User: Fold these one by one.
Assistant:
Number 1:
Amino acid sequence: MNRKARAYCSLALLAWNSRPSTVVVVSAFQPLSTTTTRSPAVLASRNTVAGRPTCEITRRAMSTNEDTDTTVDIAGNLADVKARIRAACEAAGKDPSSVRLVAVSKTKPVPMLQQCLDAGHTIMGENYAQELVEKVGILPDTVHWHFIGGLQSDKATMLVGAFKNSTVDRLTVETVSSLKLASKLNNAVPDTDSTLLKIFVQVNTSGEDSKSGVEADECAALCQDIVAKCPKLHLQGLMTIGAPDDESCFTALAECRDAVASSLGRADLELSMGMSGDFEAAIAAGATNVRVGSTIFGARDYSTK
C-alpha cells in the first residue's frame, strides 16, 4: 500500500476510534487533495468488504492517472486477444460474434478501464461487489458489467441497487450456485424495472473443495427451481472455473449444459468458461463467454490483500 493509501486508512481508523459527530476523510470520489465529510455510522458501515478494508477497494477503484501502469498497452492487448478469439473460432468452425469477451478489470483503477472503453470494448468483469458498485457510479451507462466473484446473499441488494438509475440488464451475475442467492437477487430487482437480471449458474466441474459451484448432478434441479421461482431473472447459461490445465472441466460443463437444456426445453444456454491461460481451448470446447483479465490489463498486485 502506498503512502496515500496508508494515510487514507489511518485517517479513517482514527476517525472511527474517536467517534466525533462528523469526521473529515479523504473522499473516494474526488482527488486525494480534496476532502468531504462522512458520519461515523457511514464510515463504520463501509469499513470492510469480504474481509478486506473498504478503503483499499476504494483506493484501487478510484485511483487517478498517477496510479495507472502506463507500461500496459491496453488497446494493443485487447486487439491481440480479440484476434486470438477470432482465430480460435475459425479453427472451431464458429462465428467469432458468437463468443463474448469479458475484460476482467478487478483491482484495476478506473483510468485503465477507460482506456478499454476508448478502444471500443464495453463489457467488464469484476470480482468484488463493492468495487463493482463504485465503478458503476463513475463509468458511463454504456458499460455492461459481469460479476464473476463469490457473492454473499446479503450483498445481493447492494449489487443490484447500483443499477437503480438505469436497468438491471446492464448486469450479469455469473456465480449463482444456490436458490437462496438467486432468490435474493430476484427480490432485489425493482418492480419498476421491466428488464431481467441475467445470471449464470456456477458449476464445480473440478471437484475441488476450493472451487465454488453446484455439483454437476444437482445443476439441472437448481436451474429448474430458479426458472420456476425467480421470474425477474434470466438464466443465460452455466459457468465454471476449471482446474488449471484440465480441459476436461470444459467438456464436463458442456455436458452439464446439455442436460440442463434438455430439462428446460431450451437450446440457447451459454457456456462461460476459459480465462487468460486457456480461453482458446475453452472456445474449442464450446465456450460462448470467456473471461480475460491479466492478458489485457497486466498482472495484478495482490500484495496488499
Number 2:
Amino acid sequence: MNTIYAFISSCRVNNFLISSGRDSAFINFRLIDSLLILDSYSLSSFRKHYLHIFSLTGSRFTKFKSMIIKMKKIRSTAFVLLTFLLSGYSFGQTNDYGLNKTLINSDELSKWTFVGEGKAEKSGSQIAMQESDNSKGVMLVSPESYSSDVVVRYKTLALSSATVLVALVSLSDPGESENISIPDNFDGSLGLFTNEKENYFFAFKNAPHNVTPFVRKSPATGETIASADKNSMIAGVYYDVEIGKVQGKLWLAVDGVKLFETEDATPLAGGHLALRIRGTAGFKAACLIKDLEIFTRN
C-alpha cells in the first residue's frame, strides 16, 4: 500500500494528467520505476488500491487498465530495443572493417619469440612475463606478420608499480619487408626498435616514466603522433586493452574507453606484433597477459 501511494505521489509531482470523464489520474510516463512497481501487483489488486483514490469504476477503469497495459508494452519494447542495440554495438565493434578474428591462447602465446633478459611462461590460462636483474626490457614477438589493417585486444595486469606496458604493431625491418630480424645476442634495449625498425609504438601503463599513454611511429624522430590526457592504469588490476590500426587510423582504448585516436597519412604496411614490458628506476617489470585476440585481413 505504501508503494502505491509513493507511485501516486511521484505521478502528482510530475503532473501528467490522464482524464476519464469527471475522474482524473496523474500518470508519469517518464518514470520507468513506476512501471516496474506495477509488475508486482495484479491488475485486480491494483484496481482495489486505486478505487478509493480515484473512484475509477466500470468503463473508466477499463480505459485506465488499457492505458497501463500499453505503458507496460512500451516499457517491454524499449527494453528489447535497448538490449538489441547494446548487442549490436558489441558485434559492431568486433566486425568493424570486415576483419577476421584469431584467438591466441596461452599455449600459443608461450611459443611467441621471447626477446630480452628475463622469462615468459605459462601460468594456467595466463602468460607471466618478467624481467631479470640486468634487463633492459623484455617482449614477446609474434611468429607471423599480419596485414596492414590490424586490431589487437588482450587483458593485462601489471604485477609491479614500476611496470610500463607497451605494444608494437606493424613491426618489421625497414622497406618493403613485413618480416622482423632480431640479433641473437640482443639485450632487449629499446633503441633497436625506435631507431632501426619500422613500427607503431603504443605505451599505455606509462605513469612510471612520467608520461601519459601515447603512440609513436618508428624509425622515430622522438615525435608523438597522439597521446592521452592522463594516466589511469595501476598495478594489480586487469585491464582490457585495444590497439587499432585500420586504413591509416590509429587508436588506443582501455576498458572500452578510447584514450586517443589519430590518423597517419602515410601508414606503415603490415608486420609482426610485440608485447613489451620495462621497469623503472632499477625496479623490475612483470605482468600477466591473457585472452589475446587479433583481428586482421589475413
Number 3:
Amino acid sequence: MRRPTHRQDGTATVEAVIMLPVFILMLFGVGYVARLFDHVMSANDLARFCVQRYALMACENEDSLPSECHGMFQKPGDATDDDSEEAVALREARVHDGVSDTEKNSSVLTDVLDGLFGAGMLATVSDSVQRPPIVGAGETNIAATAYALCNTKPANSRDLAATLFDALSPDKKE
C-alpha cells in the first residue's frame, strides 16, 4: 500500500516572497523612526543650548549668539504671527475658555514674579523630516521648545511688595 505524499517543493520560496515586502517596510520604517528621533533630539539640543546661552547673557544682545540661535526667542504669552489652523484654533479655544481674560488680569502678579525669579524666555526650533516614498512620502514637522529664566532686573522684596500693594489698592490717585 502506498502512502500519500505531500509536495512541499517551493514552499520556502513562496513564504519568502510573501514576507519580503513586510520586511522591506519594516526596514524603511525603522530607518525613518531613527532619522525622526535624531532630528527631534537635535532640535531639543539646539533649543536648550540657545536658551541657556541667552539666559546667561541676561537675555540681551541676541546678535552675539551663534547664527543658528537668531530669531527663535519669545516671551511666554507674547503674540505670534502664526496663522496656521492649529494656532488659530488654539487662540480661539483660549478666548472661549476665558484664559485670555485671566492673562490680562494677572499682569501685576506676572510683574512681581518676573522681578523675583526673572522673566521667562522660550526658544522654539522647527524642523521637518522626509518620509520614505514607500510609506507615503511627504514631510513630518517637528518642533522643540526650551524654557529658561532671565534675571534681568534684580529687585528687593520691599520694592516688589510696594508694587503689588500699589497695583491692588482700590483708590489709586493719579
